[in-house]
Amino acid sequence: MSTITALDVSDIRFPTSTSLDGSDAMNLDPDYSAAYVRVVTDANDGHEGHGFVFTIGRGNDVQVAGIHALSHILVGRNLDELLDDMGATWRSLVWDSQLRWLGPEKGVMHMAIGAVVNALWDLKAKRAGLPLWQLLSRMSPEEIVDLVDFRYLTDALTRDEALDILRSAAPGRSERERELTADGYPAYTTTPGWLGYSDEKLVRLAKEAVADGFSMIKLKVGGDVDEDIRRVRLAREAVGPDIRIGVDANQRWGVDEAIEWVSRLAEFDVAWVEEPTNPDDILAHAAIARGIHPIPVATGEHMANRVMFKQFLQADALQVLQIDASRVAGVNENIAILLLAAKFGVPVCPHAGGVGLCEAVQHLSMFDFVAVSGSRDGRVIEFVDHLHEHFVTPVEMRDGRYHAPTAPGNGMEMLAASRAEYVFSESDYILSK
């Protein structure tokens, strides 16, 4: 019998603020960071589970403390029992009554649970010798729905409806897996679009994106409307009329401001407007969606849980749904969100970039294509070209497409040398600032 012996947690921070990578209208100087957890066991197979929560600097220590607070639930537990019933394991973490009070089901503790859940799935996939997307895609519809907590969802999605979605997709799984392995999953890139970049850098990176095969780029907006018009015009001139350009306000606007601002950008054939306002404000998003139609609203990376996604879908407050690998409580809750999106017929275009989010979220989109929605139409995964070199199995991007990973696990494992080099030191951090 193997048991979990430790949750080993590290505070990892990269000084990306020095180059303004990740800069936008609300987050001016992000230091891309990870509250990183290893699930350590006494099994003799040599496997560990790796997961993390993505943050942007200060507060990463708070997130680390949140992960530490979950140790009492897992350390000493039978490993096979935990991994064999990941639905029950998820509930044991989310339903801890004292820790749940800190949410409930949102915020630091919910994200900490996501890191641990993702690490357990990494361990489960490694023990199976499969990449996570393939492990999930080969589960039966019944096994998949057992992972989902349908509490609070049944007014929009019942267990039977979820089973119908999965059973409808089941006959084509093998063929879609072959397609995915052969030609990958479409991506778009935010690499040219950070708000702190110079005009020259924006134009150069936009042209490079087209040369690299991307059919869509995304620009950060929301600082100054005239500047945004000028920058989006530069991007449109750089990429030509056939490349899609999305814009991302990172929660900057109120309703009327968003509608007016977007109307001034509409001449550039905007593909979508991302996070136009407060990520919790369902009615404001719905009003903006009506006001800027036919330009779609894209959002989701900061939504706290599956219940928020349910309500946004019910209110037609988003037309592009953006899951995040580490914002909600891990793989299980993201499966619930994918099923909701399939029920409402809304495309899923995940948030990525950050620290290892590209490596992680590709597995969820690929699982969705093979086993849930059965579609890649209108769907793209975000890509940003930085920090991949710190991961054991970095993403493989060719011709603007993610190529399906074959290494066992969830892709979140960071190189030991990188973890050691970038572990947070208060004194070093202060000096570097």
TrEMBL record:
GO molecular function, one term: magnesium ion binding
SUPFAM superfamilies linked: Enolase C-terminal domain-like, Enolase N-terminal domain-like
Catalytic activity: L-fuconate = 2-dehydro-3-deoxy-L-fuconate + H2O
UniProt EC number: 4.2.1.68
Pfam families: MR_MLE_C, MR_MLE_N
Domain Mandelate racemase/muconate lactonizing enzyme C-terminal: 199-295
CDD domains from the UniProt entry: rTSbeta_L-fuconate_dehydratase
Species this chain originates from: Mycetocola zhadangensis
Keyword terms, alphabetized: Lyase, Magnesium, Metal-binding
Stated name of the protein: L-fuconate dehydratase
Cofactor field: Mg(2+)
Claim: Lyase is one of the keywords in the record: yes
Alphabetical GO biological process terms: amino acid catabolic process; carbohydrate catabolic process
Gene3D superfamilies noted in UniProt: Enolase-like C-terminal domain (3.20.20.120), Enolase-like, N-terminal domain (3.30.390.10)
